[in-house]
Amino acid sequence: MGFADAALGAAGHEVTDPVLRAISRRVAAGEVTGDEAAALVKAQLLGTR
Questions:
Q1: Is 20 exposed, middle or buried (0-12, 13-18, 19+ CB in 10 A)?
Q2: Which pLDDT tens digit goes with each residue over 30-49?
Q3: Got the DSSP string for 1-49?
Q4: What is the mean pLDDT of residues 3-29?
């Protein structure tokens, strides 16, 4: 997560939503695939979770 935060910060971006950060951590830990994470993020952003 540190590397991802640094890369986003260098580009002037930041992820502050705690749910989205938790999903990112799950991907980094190998708990969910990228496709699963994309579905979770989409559901979170659309409010369908």
A1: middle
A2: 999 999 999 999 999 998 76
A3: -HHHHHHHHHTT-----HHHHHHHHHHHTTSS-HHHHHHHHHHHHHT--
A4: 88
Chain position carrying tokens 């971006």: 13
Token pair 């749910």 in the structure block, residue: 19
Give dist(CA 49, CA 40) in Å, integer: 8
pLDDT given for residue 49 in this prediction: 60
Task: Measure the CA–CA gap between 10 and 36, rounded to whole angstroms.
Answer: 27
Q: What residue type is 9 in one-letter code?
A: G
Tokens of 38: 């994309």
Q: Model pTM greater than 0.85? A: no
